[in-house]
Specification:
Layout lengths: L4 E7 L3 H8 L6 E4 L20 E2 L14 H10 L2 H9 L5 E3 L4 E4 L4 H14 L3 E3 L4 E7 L2 E6 L2 E10 L14 H8 L4 E7 L3 E3 L11 E11 L2 E12 L3 E3 L1 H4 L10 E5 L5 H14 L16 H10 L13 H12 L1 E8 L7 E6 L17 E3 L13 H20 L1
Parallel strand pairs: 1-2, 1-9, 2-6, 9-18
Antiparallel strand pairs: 3-5, 4-5, 7-8, 8-9, 10-17, 11-14, 11-16, 12-13, 12-15, 13-14, 15-16
Helix pairs in contact: 1-4, 1-10, 2-10, 7-9
InterPro entries: BaiN-like (IPR004792), BaiN-like_dom_sf (IPR023166), FAD/NAD-bd_sf (IPR036188), RsdA/BaiN/AoA(So)-like_dom (IPR055178), RsdA/BaiN/AoA(So)_Rossmann (IPR057661)
Protein name: NAD(P)/FAD-dependent oxidoreductase
Pfam families: HI0933_like, HI0933_like_1st
Length: 407
């Protein structure tokens, strides 16, 4: 048993697990990774470019984690975005800020971040066993036991850094939720986050690839508006994506109705604009009177068609009913969600280990002393823009601080 006994075992060699391990020297740490190589999901972050964090004021970060940002406040304050950049800059990596405050390594390669984490773990004396999936965890007589195909390993401290269920091909299959439940924790039902939506009767499929900056999208359920979000919208061949959809996907469900404002103008403003254009240029075709609606030409032409306006209709022929439908489709185009993208396409997982069972100042379990939950295994998911990786590093930092105190 002694050769398989460690001070701390970390399950999961993703960004949270590796960063936590790197902070623990001279503690004897074992990291168990189910995949052949560590960091598989990190390598696809930001389409392989690794949007590592966001450049905004860290005090505003809590607004970007759905309903659970308050839990992360101590972690974010203890190890903010500036600390993440300083840490990796100290390991020879420089960074660039791109659109909307997203921060990437200057090389635009996630490999550089993973290599830095692995080098740090090597320097800390961390032992990493790849292709060694944890099968079962238990606690007895002050020690955690982790059973694998290659044997059982023991430690006083156990860290669950297994991620969620998104991109299961990278190894994120929800194992950590099962382990947490085995040790007495409750788990909020996991569901996809940062996912595109697939819609029923997708009449704009031919416009796939068109992006609408600053679109407004409201979500309705049972005839009641749940919320409205603003951001860039992407029309896809199956439905809709882009930050405004991805960030709100955590709250969307099959059967919900989206009402999309393609035009930046309010309905009343657009109605006045169309009336004035018809009066000033009544012999022009309707689609040619809508340049000021703020939409791409192809989308404008399709919206005119969707509004039941016959091809060739000129401004002077536009009836009040036609104009009403036109304004409605530009400012509240209705589509029904068939389903939200599943874990194979979702970039993050909503749900996870219940936060009221975790000490937010240490990420240690309130139920099982010496058990820590960090990163996406927690019931926390962030918006696009680097917020999820930031949460991984910040929660890992808090856990490492506490682990050094108790070992």
């Amino acid at each position: 048993m002694l050769d398989r006994q460690y001070d701390c075992i970390i399950i999961g060699a993703g960004p949270a697990g590796l960063f936590c391990a790197a902070q623990l020297a001279p503690v004897r740490v074992l990291v168990l990774e189910k995949m052949v190589l560590p960091g598989r999901k990190l390598l696809i972050a930001g389409s392989g470019q690794c949007n590592i964090t966001h450049a905004g004021d860290v005090k505003s970060f809590t607004e970007h984690y759905g309903d659970h940002g308050a839990f992360l406040r101590p972690a974010l304050m203890a190890f903010p975005n500036t600390s993440v950049l300083t840490y990796f800059e100290g390991r020879g990596i420089s960074f660039v800020e791109k659109e909307l405050g997203k921060v990437f390594p200057a090389s635009l390669s996630a490999d550089d971040i993973l290599d830095a984490l692995l080098d740090a773990c090597d320097e800390a004396g961390t032992e990493i066993l790849s292709y060694t999936p944890a099968e079962m965890v238990s606690f007895d007589d002050g020690m955690y036991a982790v059973k694998t195909l290659h044997g059982t390993y023991y430690a006083k401290v156990l860290v669950l850094a297994t991620g969620g269920k998104s991109y299961p091909q990278t190894g994120s299959m929800g194992d950590g939720f099962t382990f947490a439940e085995a040790l007495g924790h409750s788990v909020a039902e996991p569901h996809p986050s940062l996912a595109p939506v697939y819609v029923s009767d997708h009449r704009l499929a031919d416009l796939s690839g068109i992006s609408i900056p600053g679109a407004a999208v409201s979500v309705w359920r049972g005839g009641k508006k749940l919320f409205v979000r603003f951001g860039d919208l992407l029309i896809t061949r199956f439905g809709y994506s882009g930050p405004v959809i991805l960030d709100a996907a955590r709250w969307m469900r099959a059967g919900d109705q989206l009402r999309i404002a393609f035009s930046p103008k309010k309905a009343e403003e657009l109605d006045v604009l169309i009336r004035a254009a018809c009066t000033a240029s009544g012999t022009k075709q309707v689609q040619n009177l809508l340049d000021d609606a703020g939409c791409p030409d192809r989308l404008t032409k399709q919206i005119v068609k969707e509004s039941g306006i016959p091809e060739g209709t000129v401004g002077a022929q536009l009836t009040a009913a036609m104009r009403s439908r036109l304004v409605g489709n530009f400012t509240a185009y209705p589509v029904e969600i068939d389903h939200v993208g599943d874990f194979r396409v979702a970039m993050a997982t909503a749900g996870g280990v219940m936060l009221d069972e975790i000490n937010k100042k240490t990420c240690e379990s309130k139920i099982a002393p010496g058990l820590f939950c960090i990163g996406e295994v927690l019931d926390v998911d962030g918006d696009t823009g680097g917020y999820n990786l930031q949460a991984c590093f910040s929660t890992a930092f808090l856990a490492a601080q506490r682990i050094r105190q108790i070992l």
